[in-house]
Automatic annotation (TrEMBL):
<protein>
    <recommendedName>
        <fullName>Alpha/beta hydrolase</fullName>
    </recommendedName>
</protein>
<dbReference type="InterPro" id="IPR029058">
    <property type="entry name" value="AB_hydrolase_fold"/>
</dbReference>
<dbReference type="InterPro" id="IPR051411">
    <property type="entry name" value="Polyketide_trans_af380"/>
</dbReference>
């Protein structure tokens, strides 16, 4: 395969199938030279045409190689035989990430490999790095690393989610047919007004819709491979938050970028409290959690910081 500067469609093996990826190469790319490479990890339940398509070009413009990809069963990446699409399970996300690192490590023009995760991607990268020291540095933006408090504060609600997920898993096993749900109450057909009216936190719902909604900048109309619907047993896996419990085992230098005013701020701050490695923290008051997904000023602030950290 001939690779050129810009975005190149690639595949790599994980769980015995080909995962679909986009490899972003810097301007003037020369395969005889060595480059620092980044494996990207995206928010739940995104595909590679969302966060990776935003951060990939930005990091390539700063001289890095960036790999964004669809996890097993997401977007153009197939599910395993007998399984269903939209089954983004945390343990598999970590293993897919390890295989992405292996793919980058096999490229002759790749030097050091770093990890960059946004939202749930922060938890994926932090978890993957615990035992994968091929990843030399990690950066997490609006990360959901310390997600226990976020997910388990209301235990009754958490157990309701788990009960529903258990029932769905049993039915899917017995029938062989998938059951899909909208994990955040947002389906692919709702208007902004409908979603906000039904939401417990209207402001949060508004910014989420502006990105993920039917008419959002990276919603199902803008990104045909994306859907807000997800396999119904998701809560059985997403309620695990591994990285915060292994934070003190992470040895790689780490950068944490987050919004100090966002409702998700504790997912970063509580994680940082548990770190024992060399780490840097950059908090912004002027940006929201979702601003780091696509707002130009927020993306520039985060990618500038990540590039400076990885270049040290």
């Amino acid at each position: 395969m001939t690779l050129t500067a810009g975005k190149d469609a690639v595949t790599f093996k994980s769980f015995g199938v080909d995962l679909a990826g986009d490899l972003y190469l810097p301007e003037g790319f020369d395969p005889s030279k060595k480059y620092k490479a980044i494996v990207g990890a995206s928010p739940f339940p995104q595909v590679k045409d969302q966060i990776p398509a935003t951060y990939g070009p930005e990091m390539a413009a700063r001289g890095f190689i960036y790999l964004g990809f669809n996890y097993l069963g997401m977007g153009e990446s197939p599910a395993l035989p007998g399984e269903h699409k939209q089954s983004r399970y945390m343990f598999r996300l970590i293993e897919n990430t390890w295989d992405a690192v292996s793919y980058l490590g096999a490229l002759p023009f790749v030097d050091e490999i770093y990890g960059l995760g946004v939202c749930q991607g922060g938890a994926i990268i932090a978890s993957a790095a615990v035992t994968d020291h091929r990843i030399k540095k990690i950066a997490m933006v609006s990360g959901m690393m310390a997600a226990d408090a976020f997910q388990w504060t209301d235990r009754e609600a958490a157990h309701q989610q788990i009960t529903a997920a258990n029932a769905a898993k049993q039915k899917m096993y017995e029938t062989g047919a998938p059951i899909y749900v909208a994990p955040f109450g947002l389906n692919d057909e709702m208007s902004r007004e409908e979603f906000i009216a039904a939401a417990a936190y209207p402001e949060m719902a508004g910014e989420s819709y502006d990105y993920y909604g039917r008419d959002g900048v990276k919603g199902p109309k803008a990104v045909p491979s994306f859907t807000n619907m997800h396999i119904a047993d998701q809560a059985m896996q997403s309620m695990f938050s591994l990285s915060e419990h292994y934070a003190d085992k992470i040895v790689q230098p780490a950068l944490v970028v987050y919004s100090a005013t966002a409702f998700t701020a504790p997912c970063s701050t509580q994680f940082v409290e548990k770190l024992t490695n060399d780490h840097e923290v950059l908090a912004f008051d002027e940006f929201s959690h979702v601003d780091f997904y696509y707002k130009p000023e927020a993306v520039k602030a985060s990618t500038d910081a990540v590039a400076a950290f990885f270049d040290k």
